[in-house]
Fold this sequence. Notes:
Elements: H1 5-15, H2 22-34, H3 37-53, E1 55-56, E2 63-64, H4 70-73, E3 81-85, H5 88-96, E4 103-106, H6 124-133, E5 139-142, H7 148-161, E6 167-170, H8 186-194, E7 197-198
Parallel strand pairs: 3-4, 3-5, 5-6
Antiparallel strand pairs: 1-2, 6-7
Helix pairs in contact: 1-2
The chain binds zinc ion (ZN).
Zinc finger (C4-type): 57-72
Family: Belongs to the RecR family.
Function: May play a role in DNA repair. It seems to be involved in an RecBC-independent recombinational process of DNA repair. It may act with RecF and RecO.
Amino acid sequence: MQYPEPIAKLIDSYLKLPGIGEKTATRLAFFTIDMEQSEVVAFSKALVAAKKDLSYCSICGNITENDPCVICADKTRDQSQVIVVEQVKDVMALEKMQEYRGLYHVLHGVLSPIEGKGPEDINITSLLRRLQQNSQIKEVILATNATPEGEATAMYISKLIKPANIMTTRLAHGLAVGSDIEYADEMTLYNAVKNRQEI
Ligand SMILES: [Zn+2]
Protein backbone atom coordinates (compact mmCIF):
# COMPACT_ATOMS: atom_id res chain seq x y z
CA MET A 1 0.00 0.00 0.00
CA GLN A 2 1.20 3.46 -0.81
CA TYR A 3 0.81 6.41 1.54
CA PRO A 4 -1.60 9.17 0.49
CA GLU A 5 0.32 11.90 -1.31
CA PRO A 6 0.32 14.49 1.52
CA ILE A 7 1.95 11.97 3.87
CA ALA A 8 4.43 10.81 1.24
CA LYS A 9 5.41 14.46 0.65
CA LEU A 10 5.83 15.08 4.36
CA ILE A 11 8.02 11.97 4.70
CA ASP A 12 10.13 13.23 1.77
CA SER A 13 10.55 16.59 3.49
CA TYR A 14 11.72 15.03 6.75
CA LEU A 15 14.11 12.82 4.78
CA LYS A 16 15.95 15.95 3.65
CA LEU A 17 17.05 16.66 7.24
CA PRO A 18 20.47 15.40 8.34
CA GLY A 19 20.57 12.11 10.23
CA ILE A 20 16.96 11.25 9.43
CA GLY A 21 16.31 7.93 7.70
CA GLU A 22 13.15 6.45 6.19
CA LYS A 23 11.90 5.02 9.50
CA THR A 24 12.31 8.21 11.52
CA ALA A 25 10.90 10.34 8.69
CA THR A 26 7.78 8.17 8.62
CA ARG A 27 7.42 8.35 12.40
CA LEU A 28 7.78 12.15 12.36
CA ALA A 29 5.27 12.49 9.54
CA PHE A 30 2.63 10.51 11.44
CA PHE A 31 3.45 12.41 14.61
CA THR A 32 2.88 15.68 12.75
CA ILE A 33 -0.52 14.51 11.52
CA ASP A 34 -1.53 13.83 15.12
CA MET A 35 -0.43 17.27 16.31
CA GLU A 36 -2.96 20.04 17.04
CA GLN A 37 -3.76 22.20 14.02
CA SER A 38 -2.43 25.32 15.82
CA GLU A 39 0.85 23.58 16.68
CA VAL A 40 1.40 22.54 13.07
CA VAL A 41 0.73 26.11 11.88
CA ALA A 42 3.16 27.53 14.47
CA PHE A 43 5.78 24.94 13.44
CA SER A 44 5.48 25.72 9.75
CA LYS A 45 5.59 29.48 10.44
CA ALA A 46 8.76 29.05 12.49
CA LEU A 47 10.39 27.18 9.59
CA VAL A 48 9.50 29.87 7.05
CA ALA A 49 10.45 32.76 9.38
CA ALA A 50 13.83 31.23 10.23
CA LYS A 51 14.64 31.05 6.54
CA LYS A 52 13.15 34.43 5.58
CA ASP A 53 14.37 36.57 8.48
CA LEU A 54 17.88 35.23 8.87
CA SER A 55 20.92 35.78 6.70
CA TYR A 56 24.68 35.71 7.15
CA CYS A 57 26.57 38.75 8.40
CA SER A 58 28.44 40.32 5.47
CA ILE A 59 31.44 41.00 7.71
CA CYS A 60 31.93 37.85 9.81
CA GLY A 61 29.59 35.19 8.36
CA ASN A 62 27.64 34.77 11.61
CA ILE A 63 23.92 34.10 11.33
CA THR A 64 21.87 37.25 11.93
CA GLU A 65 18.54 39.06 11.60
CA ASN A 66 20.28 42.35 10.82
CA ASP A 67 23.42 42.97 8.79
CA PRO A 68 25.99 43.51 10.29
CA CYS A 69 25.34 41.14 13.18
CA VAL A 70 25.09 42.31 16.83
CA ILE A 71 28.71 41.31 17.51
CA CYS A 72 30.17 43.21 14.53
CA ALA A 73 27.90 46.19 15.25
CA ASP A 74 28.97 46.39 18.91
CA LYS A 75 31.77 48.97 18.99
CA THR A 76 32.43 48.36 22.69
CA ARG A 77 33.87 44.95 21.78
CA ASP A 78 37.63 44.58 21.39
CA GLN A 79 38.25 45.36 17.71
CA SER A 80 41.83 44.03 17.82
CA GLN A 81 41.02 40.30 18.15
CA VAL A 82 39.24 37.95 15.76
CA ILE A 83 38.47 34.33 16.60
CA VAL A 84 38.16 32.15 13.49
CA VAL A 85 35.69 29.26 13.88
CA GLU A 86 34.28 26.54 11.62
CA GLN A 87 30.59 27.15 12.18
CA VAL A 88 28.00 29.49 13.66
CA LYS A 89 27.40 27.05 16.52
CA ASP A 90 31.00 27.62 17.66
CA VAL A 91 30.34 31.37 18.03
CA MET A 92 27.41 30.55 20.31
CA ALA A 93 29.60 28.17 22.36
CA LEU A 94 32.37 30.76 22.79
CA GLU A 95 29.89 33.54 23.62
CA LYS A 96 28.38 31.38 26.37
CA MET A 97 31.73 31.45 28.17
CA GLN A 98 31.20 35.26 28.59
CA GLU A 99 34.93 35.99 28.80
CA TYR A 100 35.86 36.82 25.23
CA ARG A 101 34.99 40.35 24.10
CA GLY A 102 36.59 40.39 20.66
CA LEU A 103 35.19 39.63 17.20
CA TYR A 104 34.63 36.46 15.14
CA HIS A 105 34.96 35.09 11.64
CA VAL A 106 32.93 32.03 10.59
CA LEU A 107 34.50 29.83 7.90
CA HIS A 108 31.40 27.70 7.26
CA GLY A 109 33.49 24.55 6.94
CA VAL A 110 37.08 23.33 6.85
CA LEU A 111 39.51 22.32 4.15
CA SER A 112 38.88 18.69 3.30
CA PRO A 113 40.61 17.09 0.31
CA ILE A 114 38.51 13.95 0.81
CA GLU A 115 35.27 15.89 0.45
CA GLY A 116 36.79 18.03 -2.30
CA LYS A 117 36.61 21.18 -0.18
CA GLY A 118 39.29 23.72 -1.06
CA PRO A 119 40.06 27.27 0.13
CA GLU A 120 37.50 28.75 -2.27
CA ASP A 121 34.74 26.66 -0.69
CA ILE A 122 35.07 28.22 2.76
CA ASN A 123 35.03 31.81 4.01
CA ILE A 124 38.79 32.50 3.75
CA THR A 125 38.84 35.22 1.08
CA SER A 126 36.52 37.40 3.15
CA LEU A 127 38.79 36.94 6.17
CA LEU A 128 41.86 38.08 4.24
CA ARG A 129 39.96 41.05 2.82
CA ARG A 130 38.79 41.95 6.30
CA LEU A 131 42.36 41.88 7.62
CA GLN A 132 43.55 44.05 4.73
CA GLN A 133 40.81 46.63 5.19
CA ASN A 134 40.83 46.78 8.97
CA SER A 135 44.14 47.79 10.52
CA GLN A 136 42.68 47.59 14.03
CA ILE A 137 42.92 43.78 13.96
CA LYS A 138 46.13 42.75 15.72
CA GLU A 139 45.50 39.08 16.49
CA VAL A 140 43.75 36.21 14.74
CA ILE A 141 42.90 33.31 17.06
CA LEU A 142 42.42 30.10 15.10
CA ALA A 143 39.71 28.10 16.83
CA THR A 144 38.97 25.42 14.29
CA ASN A 145 38.24 22.00 15.81
CA ALA A 146 41.04 19.71 17.01
CA THR A 147 40.51 17.34 14.08
CA PRO A 148 43.01 16.69 11.24
CA GLU A 149 40.92 18.93 8.93
CA GLY A 150 40.65 21.63 11.61
CA GLU A 151 44.41 21.58 12.21
CA ALA A 152 45.21 21.66 8.50
CA THR A 153 42.84 24.59 8.00
CA ALA A 154 44.44 26.52 10.91
CA MET A 155 47.90 25.92 9.44
CA TYR A 156 46.79 27.01 5.98
CA ILE A 157 45.28 30.25 7.29
CA SER A 158 48.25 31.05 9.53
CA LYS A 159 50.58 30.80 6.53
CA LEU A 160 48.38 33.20 4.56
CA ILE A 161 48.26 35.71 7.40
CA LYS A 162 51.96 35.62 8.38
CA PRO A 163 53.14 38.17 5.77
CA ALA A 164 50.51 40.65 7.01
CA ASN A 165 52.32 40.96 10.35
CA ILE A 166 49.26 40.04 12.39
CA MET A 167 49.78 37.74 15.36
CA THR A 168 48.31 34.31 14.75
CA THR A 169 47.46 32.07 17.70
CA ARG A 170 45.92 28.64 18.09
CA LEU A 171 43.72 27.47 20.96
CA ALA A 172 45.64 25.60 23.66
CA HIS A 173 45.41 21.84 23.89
CA GLY A 174 42.79 21.78 26.61
CA LEU A 175 40.57 20.46 23.87
CA ALA A 176 40.86 16.73 23.35
CA VAL A 177 42.22 15.67 19.99
CA GLY A 178 39.39 15.10 17.57
CA SER A 179 36.95 17.13 19.66
CA ASP A 180 34.52 19.78 18.50
CA ILE A 181 34.37 23.29 19.95
CA GLU A 182 30.60 23.24 20.09
CA TYR A 183 30.56 20.38 22.61
CA ALA A 184 33.33 21.65 24.89
CA ASP A 185 32.29 22.93 28.32
CA GLU A 186 32.78 26.59 29.23
CA MET A 187 35.78 26.05 31.51
CA THR A 188 37.64 24.00 28.87
CA LEU A 189 36.96 26.67 26.27
CA TYR A 190 38.03 29.42 28.66
CA ASN A 191 41.35 27.68 29.32
CA ALA A 192 41.86 26.92 25.63
CA VAL A 193 41.44 30.60 24.75
CA LYS A 194 43.42 31.90 27.72
CA ASN A 195 46.39 29.58 27.11
CA ARG A 196 46.40 29.98 23.33
CA GLN A 197 49.81 29.83 21.65
CA GLU A 198 51.39 31.75 18.84
CA ILE A 199 51.96 29.74 15.67
ZN1 LIG B 1 29.15 39.85 12.05
